[in-house]
Amino acid sequence: MCVEREPYQTARAGTGQSGNGSRSLLIRGGLVAGADGVLETRDVRIVDGRIAPAGAGALPHDDVEVIDATGCLVLPGFVNMHSHSYGTLCRHDGARLPLEPWMNYALAGTANRTPDEILVATQLQAIEALRTGTTAVVDHIGGAVAGLAPVLGAYEDSGIRAAVAPMIGDIPLPDSVGLSAEDWPPGTGYGAPEFAQKPAAELLDDTLALRRSWTSPSGRVAVILGPSAPQRCSTDLLASVAEAAEREDMLVHTHLLETRLQAALTPRSGVAPGWTSWTERGS
Ligand SMILES: [Zn+2]
Known about the structure:
With 283 residues, the chain is of the alpha/beta class.
């Protein structure tokens, strides 16, 4: 990063949320790509949270914050379209393992987290994102859905834009990769209460309850639907997600065929009727 500023302030300026709604921001002397892709040294002016047209005259407010961007490239905020904030607190657990066995560590890492742990994990995610110029994230967040309110508050306070997709699935991990519980390596904790799957209806209800309980003061933080992956969700759950997406006008975020194993285990006729009927509707 070329400009040393608080990430919070950077994001507010970059996402249309200027502090008191009437300030102007002048990013002076940075390199900006024109319509033809050629870099030119230009000033960028942001008025009331929006980039002002070039040559639009003087800034209308006396309270102008100036950033010297000399020698820097001025870019729009990046968007991270897939992330898992819970991973900030268990980043090296199960390192170098293939995805499916690694997921045991992910499940263990998110089980029984306290609200403070959930809050800190999200804050770390937001800080890391903002420090790389990322002003919007999709967080496919694991853990018990009913306890995810701190995630929403942390993103709201950070200044970032976030779509929070509670990751839900009702098929146990061993079943999703074609193994019986007895075939699963001992010591992985399979069968422990923390790994028990809730029924499909309950998982979806928890997601919808979280959404209804949340109003984003800034309008930047939203709850969306997050079925974990087709092989980890029953037909009932996928069909319910599809129905809820239409009824509640909600976006859906999911994994799809992340590994060769998953591709090999997925029937060519379609992963699940609920899923395929939903995708065919083009939602
Ligand atoms: Zn993922």
